[in-house]
Design a protein that fits this description.
It contains 15 helices and 2 strands. It is mainly alpha-helical and about 475 residues long. It folds into 2 domains: about 180 residues, Vanadium-containing Chloroperoxidase, domain 1 (Up-down Bundle), CATH 1.20.144; about 230 residues, Vanadium-containing Chloroperoxidase, domain 2, CATH 1.10.606.20. The protein has a two-stranded antiparallel ribbon with strand order 1-2.
Length: about 475
C-alpha cells in the first residue's frame, strides 16, 4: 500500500531547527538556510493525512540551497561536466526515492540506458517519502561529490539529522527508519549504476587538424584539447547515443565580405578585452560564473538555482519537484555528451584564432577560451535542454535569476524562460569566445534534446 503521510510544522520544531542553524553557524555560518516562516493558523491545525498534491518539497529545496552554500568556496572548483554528471544522477536518485509514493508513477528504469531495476519498498507498510528523499539526497551527495572534505561530510550528516528530527515529529520511529533505509538503498543502486557509464573528460587520441578552419590551441594558455572522450560516455537517452549537431549555418570563409568574417568581427567588437562594453562584460561574467573561488559560483549551482527558483515559484510539490530535478539532470548529462560529439566532429576554430589571423594579431577575448572546438556551444549545451525541460513543464513563464544575491548583486529579471536562455547564449559572444550563429544553433539543439526528455513519461495523473 502506498503511503500518505502527515505534514504539519509546529513552533517547537521551527525553534529547534533554527537553534541548530545558529549553533552550527559558529563553524560555517551560511551553510544552512532558514526554513520559510509558517503562519500561526497552520501551526494550530492538527496533523492530517495529505493528498498527493499536498506533499511538500521544501526539504528538497532546502537541500539544494544547502549544497550550493556548502560548495560555494570549494577549491579547486569542480569541472562543470563532472559536477553536472553528479547532479544528473542525484536528480534521478531523488525521483526514485519517492517514486513509489506517486499515484500512477513509474521508475525511470526501463526508459534510461542500462538503468537496472531499483529497490522496491514493502507495499504492505507505511513510508514517509520526505524521509526517504532526505536520506537519499544525503547519501547521494556524499557518493557523487568527490571534492567533499571531512568537514563538508559532517555538515551533510548534521543537516540530514536536523531534517530527520523535523520529520520525526509527525511520524513513528519505525516508519522513519524504514523510509531512511529505502532512500539509502536507492542511493547505493544509483551510484553502482553510474560506475559503468564510461565517463571521462580527458583527451584521447585527438590531434588538431591542419586546416584553416580547424580548431587550434588558443592564447594566452595555448592548452591542448580536452574533453574529446566525453562523447563516448553512456548517456541517459538512446537519442543521445548518436545525436550530432546539424551543419553549421554559416560556411567558413576568409573573404572580408563573407557572413563568417562578419560573425568574427562581431565577436571582436562585442567581446574583446578592450572593445567590450562594461555591460557586456558583466553579462558575460554573470553567465560564466566568473571570478574564481568565493566570487563565481561553481557549476552546476547556477543552473540549480534557476531550477529551484522556478519550482518554488510554481509551488511544485514533492512529486513534481523530484521529476523535474530528474529530467533537468538528464539534460545536464546528455547535453554535454551530444555537444562534445559535435565539437570534435566539426572541429571549428575559435573567434580568437580567426581574429588574430585576419583582423588583429594582438586581440584577446574578455574571458579565456576553453580548450576545445567552438561549434556547438558548451554553455548552451547545458542551458538549452535544461530550460526546455522547464518550458515543457510550466510554459514559457517569467523568471528571476537571483543566483548572486549572496554577494549583493541585484537579481536579473526575464519576461520568459526563453529570454533567459537567449541572454545566456549571447553572453558567450560578449565573452569573445563564440560566434553568434553557433549560439543560436545551439539553442535549437538544446530545444530538440529537451523535447526528447519530455517524451520520457514516468507519471500518470497530473499533479503538483
Amino acid at each position: 500500500m502506498k503511503s500518505l503521510f502527515k505534514h504539519s510544522l509546529n513552533v517547537k520544531l521551527l525553534c529547534a531547527l533554527l537553534l541548530f542553524v545558529s549553533m552550527y553557524g559558529c563553524q560555517k555560518s551560511d551553510q544552512l538556510l532558514e526554513p520559510p516562516a509558517t503562519d500561526a493558523a497552520s501551526l494550530s491545525k492538527p496533523p492530517h493525512p495529505l493528498k498527493q498534491s499536498d506533499e511538500s518539497a521544501e526539504i528538497v529545496y532546502q537541500w539544494y540551497r544547502f549544497m550550493s552554500v556548502l560548495q560555494r568556496n570549494v577549491s579547486p572548483q569542480p569541472a562543470p561536466f563532472v559536477a553536472g554528471r553528479a547532479y544528473a544522477y542525484i536528480g534521478v536518485g531523488l525521483y526514485e526515492s519517492v517514486q513509489p509514493g506517486i499515484d500512477g508513477g513509474s521508475s525511470f528504469g526501463p526508459k534510461l540506458l542500462e538503468m537496472p531495476a531499483m529497490p522496491k519498498p514493502d507495499q504492505s507498510k507505511e513510508y514517509m517519502w520526505r524521509a526517504s528523499a532526505n536520506a537519499a539526497l544525503s547519501s547521494l551527495f556524499k557518493l557523487f561529490l568527490a571534492n567533499l572534505s571531512p568537514a563538508d561530510k559532517a555538515s551533510i550528516d548534521a543537516n540530514e539529522l536536523a531534517v530527520y528530527n523535523q520529520l520525526s515529529l509527525t511520524s513513528s520511529e519505525e516508519v522513519m527508519k524504514r523510509s531512511e533505509e529505502f532512500g539509502r538503498a536507492i542511493a547505493s543502486a544509483i551510484y553502482d549504476w553510474s560506475t559503468t557509464d564510461n565517463f571521462s573528460i580527458t583527451s584521447g587520441t585527438y590531434v588538431p587538424l591542419n586546416e584553416p578552419w580547424a580548431w587550434a590551441p588558443t592564447p594566452p594558455a595555448n592548452a591542448p584539447a580536452a574533453g574529446d572522450n566525453l562523447q563516448y560516455s553512456r548517456p541517459f537517452l538512446k537519442y543521445s547515443q548518436t545525436s550530432v549537431a546539424p551543419l553549421m549555418p554559416v560556411a567558413y570563409s576568409e573573404d572580408p565580405t563573407s557572413a563568417f568574417f562578419l560573425e568574427a568581427k562581431e565577436a571582436h567588437d562585442l567581446g574583446g578585452t578592450t572593445t567590450a562594453t562594461a555591460e557586456n562584460k558583466a553579462t558575460a561574467s554573470w553567465w560564466a560564473d566568473a571570478g574564481g573561488v568565493g566570487v563565481g559560483l561553481p557549476s552546476p549551482y547556477h543552473f540549480l538555482s534557476i531550477i529551484t527558483g522556478v519550482l518554488e515559484s510554481q509551488q511544485a510539490g514533492l512529486w513534481k519537484a523530484a521529476e523535474v530535478y530528474a529530467k533537468t539532470g538528464i539534460a545536464m548529462k546528455d547535453g554535454p555528451i551530444n555537444t562534445f560529439r559535435s565539437k570534435f566532429h566539426y572541429n571549428l576554430l575559435r573567434p580568437i584564432t580567426y581574429i588574430r589571423r585576419h583582423m588583429d594579431a594582438s586581440w584577446l577575448s574578455h574571458l579565456p577560451n576553453p580548450p576545445y572546438p567552438e561549434y556547438p556551444s558548451g554553455l548552451v549545451g547545458f542551458y538549452g535542454p535544461i530550460i526546455q525541460v522547464l518550458i515543457n513543464e510550466f510554459g514559457d513563464i517569467p523568471v528571476t535569476d537571483n543566483t548572486y544575491s549572496w554577494r549583493g548583486d541585484a537579481p536579473r529579471q526575464f519576461s520568459s524562460l526563453s529570454q533567459l536562455r537567449l541572454e545566456a547564449a549571447l553572453s558567450r559572444v560578449y565573452a569573445g569566445i563564440h560566434y553568434r550563429f553557433t549560439q543560436m544553433a545551439s539553442i535549437d539543439i538544446g530545444v530538440a534534446l529537451g523535447n526528447e526528455i519530455h517524451k520520457v513519461r514516468v507519471v500518470g495523473p497530473e499533479y503538483k
